[in-house]
Amino acid sequence: MKLSFVTANLGSGGAERVISLLANQFCLKGYDVEIVFFRDRLIFYELDDRVKIIVIGENCQSNGMWRKMIWLRSYIKKERPDVVIPFRVSVYCTTILSLMGLSVPIVASERIDPRIPDSFWTLLRKLLLPLVKHLVVQTHYIKSYYPKFLQKKTSVIPNPVRDEVFKSPDGLHVQDANAASSVQSSNSQMEGLEQEKLNRIISVGRLYPQKNQEMMIRAFAKVADEFPDWQLVIYGEGPLRTELEFLISSFKLQDRVLLPGRTGHVIEELRKSKIFCMSSDYEGMSNSMIEAICVGLPIISTNVSGTEEMVIDGKNGYLVPKNDEERMALCFQVTIRSEELREHFSIYNKGLATQFKTESIVNQWESLLNSIVK
C-alpha cells in the first residue's frame, strides 16, 4: 500500500511529530510511504531513510499556492497513492481543493479544536470535509462538533508517544506501571532506577498566544515566595519570547522561571520534573501532556479540548478554567505541598500509559486505512 502524508513541513510541532512516528512505523511494516511538504524542507524529527520526501515548491519552482496546488494534483494523478493523508485544517482544505474530482481517497486529520472561532476555516471545513473519505480526530469532544453525517465517517485516534517514554533511564522497557512495580519490588538492582527529580514545574509548547504561558507565569509568581526552592521551566520557542522575558523580569523571577528554548530531550526533562503544566486557550490533544502522563507526572492544565479525556480532576491532576490564574496558583500550591498527592497522581497516570503506545495507535490507523482501500 502506498501512503502519501501531506503537511506544511516537519517542524517541531505536535502534528509533525505524529506524522514522523506514523511514517516510520508504516515503513517498518513494509508500506510505501512518502511525505509531501507544501511549505519547505524543514525536518525536525528523525525519519526512516525509506520515507520519501517531496517538497512541492522545489518541484514546481514556485511559492505561489495555486501553482503548488496544480502541481500536487498532477503528481497525485500520476503516482496514484492508495490513500492521501493531510494533517491540519489549512493543509487538508488545500489538499481537498487540489484533488477534487480525482478518485484517490483522502483521510483528513484534524489537529485542533474546531470550535475555535475562525470564520474562514470554519466555512472551509463545512464546505470541504463532506468530500473526504474519512476524518480522523484526537478526541470524542472534537468528534461531537461535527454534524451526524460526518461523525459516521469519523474515527477517534489519540496521538502516539515515542517508545522512549516506556523505557527507564537505564534502557529497560517497562510494560506498564504494575509490571514496573513488580520488577522493582523483586529486584534490588532496580533501586535508584528513577532519575533524581528536581523541584520544578515543567511545560512544553511554542511561545505563542494559543499556549498562554503568560497565565502560567503569573500563577507561579503568586506562589513563588512560598516555595523558594521551586522553578518553572517552559521549553519551546516562538514570537512571544521577548514579551514573556519582560514579564518574568517584572516579577524578578529570572532565576526561577526559565525559557531554555527547544529541546531534543523532552522525555529526559519530563523525568527530571515533578509537575507538568499546560495553560493553553485551546488544543487538539497535547503531545507533551500525553508524554507527561506516561512518565507519571501530575498534570495541572486548563480545561480545553483533549484534557478532560486525559485528566480527571483530583485523580491524576487538576483542571483549571481558561485564564483563571488564581485557580492555577492554588493548584500549584496544593500539589507542591504534598509529596503524597504527587505520588498518588503519578501512579494513576502510569496506569494510563499503555493506551498511547505507538504500536496500539499505528494498528488503529492501519485497520482504518486497510478498510478504506478494500
Tally of alpha and pi helices: 15
- Please report which band the strand proportion falls in: under 5%, 5-15%, 15-25%, 25-35%, 35-45% or over 45%: 15-25%
SSE string, helices as H and strands as E: EHEEHHEHEHEHHEHEHEHEHEHEEHHH
Estimated radius of gyration: 22 Å
Describe this protein's structure:
40% of the residues lie in helices and 15% in strands. It has 15 helices and 13 strands. It has a six-stranded parallel beta sheet with strand order 10-9-8-11-12-13, sandwiched between helices. The protein has a four-stranded parallel beta sheet with strand order 3-2-1-4.
Please describe the topology of this protein:
Elements: E1 2-7, H1 14-28, E2 32-37, E3 52-55, H2 56-60, H3 65-79, E4 83-86, H4 89-99, E5 107-109, H5 119-128, E6 134-137, H6 140-143, H7 148-151, E7 154-156, H8 177-186, E8 200-204, H9 213-223, E9 231-235, H10 241-250, E10 257-261, H11 266-271, E11 275-278, H12 287-294, E12 299-302, E13 317-320, H13 325-337, H14 339-350, H15 358-373
Parallel strand pairs: 1-2, 1-4, 2-3, 5-6, 6-7, 8-9, 8-11, 9-10, 11-12, 12-13
Helix pairs in contact: 1-15, 3-4, 4-5, 9-13
Highlighted features:
374 residues, alpha/beta, Rossmann fold, 2 domains, 6-stranded parallel β-sheet, 4-stranded parallel β-sheet, 15 helices, 13 strands, globular
Tell me briefly what this model is.
The chain is α/β, with parallel strands linked by helices and 374 residues long. It contains 15 helices and 13 strands. It folds into two domains: 2-160 and 357-373, Glycogen Phosphorylase B (Rossmann fold, 3-Layer(aba) Sandwich), CATH 3.40.50; 164-355, Glycogen Phosphorylase B (Rossmann fold, 3-Layer(aba) Sandwich).
